[in-house]
Amino acid sequence: MMKLAIIATLAWCTCAHANWNDDWQTVPFDSLTEEEGLRILRGEPNNIVVEFREGMMLPVQFFLNGDVLEFHQKDEITGTIVVKKTFYMRHEECGIMYSGDLNSWHPLYMFLTGNIQAGINLDDDVPVLRIDVNHEAEVLQ
Question: 28-62 burial, b for 16+ CB within 10 Å, e for fewer?
Fold first, then answer.
């Protein structure tokens, strides 16, 4: 069991702290081709680093369709996320990695930190479900 833990730790360290090399191609998120996006989503080997620039607006779609709840929306786009600090993401064998400087790479779970809260607002006497997500990327701060 100890050998397995050591091997897993070495694999994580190798992947998490891989350095930038010339084989990687930086592509802004809003310039990705459909083919590049599909390769990334499928986890296929590629040399693409996706750049999310400060100030970039990312359209968001939200879907919920289940046995008890279903989400309906008027428009195809639910909202927009604004990138407050430039960061990069790439897919490696060990999963999705992110960086703030193209030199130090970290696993995605270190990027997705913070908390989620849900509640009900009573604006204009109409109950509205409210979901708050506070995101903190440990390594980018």
Answer: eeeebeeeeeebbeeeeeeebbbbbeeebeeeeee
Domain chopping of the chain, boundaries: 2-112
pLDDT for res 51: 95
Output the pLDDT for position 20: 44
Q: Report pLDDT digits (tens) over 20-30.
A: 456 889 999 99
What's the rounded Cα separation, in Å, for the pair 119 and 132? Answer: 9
Q: Which two tokens stand for residue 4?
A: 């397995």
Whether the model pTM is above 0.70: no
Beta strand 95-99 pairing with 106-107: antiparallel
